[in-house]
Write a structure and sequence with these properties.
Layout lengths: L1 H36 L4 E7 L5 E7 L5 H6 L1 H12 L7 H7 L3 E3 L25 E3 L12 H14 L2 H16 L23
Parallel strand pairs: 3-4
Antiparallel strand pairs: 1-2
Helix pairs in contact: 1-4
């Protein structure tokens, strides 16, 4: 319990520092995407968080209509770059400040998946969801659903300061040498259909 309190405070301070440092770059990036994409550059979506509470997750928008991409060929490559290096995740620092998320934890998933979880899989909601996590440093979006849920619930059972530091270090390494990013044209992850079709 003591570490949970320390973890929340650490999350808040580091998220604030990172936002202050990254805001000029992020602001310029959003302005560029707003002009080029002709749409609002921030993507928002309802996700499931701590204790199955629903919250709105924010990301830099990297998916645009085909006609826009045809007019601006560079935009597709630029958005792929943002996803590859997880730059599109920067707005989730705001989610951390709001208390919706942690820097480290199971990635928050779609609300529609809630009725499909087994009791074991529901354990992932016993901690705040994270921007990065144990599953993300073990294959990111290339993992099968059973493997991903297994890593998430293992983290819930074993999370500690030492483990979180290990995940942070591995995350930095993965940012420098990206792995597990889906090719262009594919969703970040195939939809979870329930345990009978995902084993």
């Amino acid at each position: 319990m003591r570490y949970v309190i320390v973890k929340h405070g650490f999350d808040w301070v580091l998220a604030l520092v990172l936002l202050l440092i990254l805001t000029p770059m992020t602001g310029g990036l959003l302005l560029l995407l707003r002009i080029a994409g002709q749409e609002h550059p921030v993507f928002s979506q309802a996700r499931v968080g701590y204790r199955e509470q629903i919250f709105v997750l924010y990301k830099v928008k990297t998916m645009y209509p085909t006609e826009v991409l045809k007019q601006r060929a560079w935009l597709s490559d630029f958005c792929r770059f943002l996803r590859q290096y997880s730059i599109d995740e920067i707005p989730q620092l705001w989610n951390v400040l709001r208390g919706d998320m942690s820097l480290i934890g199971p990635r928050p998933l779609l609300v529609e998946y809630l009725p499909l979880y087994s009791e074991q899989q529901k354990k992932r909601h016993q901690v705040r969801p994270g921007i990065t996590g144990w599953a993300q440093v073990h294959g990111r979006n290339t993992l099968s659903w059973p493997k991903r849920f297994g890593l998430d619930t293992w983290y819930v059972d074993n999370f500690s300061l030492k483990l979180d530091i290990k995940i942070l270090i591995r995350t930095v390494v993965h940012l420098v040498h990206p792995q597990g990013v889906r090719p262009e044209g594919l969703a970040d992850f195939e939809k979870f259909q329930g345990n009978s079709t995902n084993l």
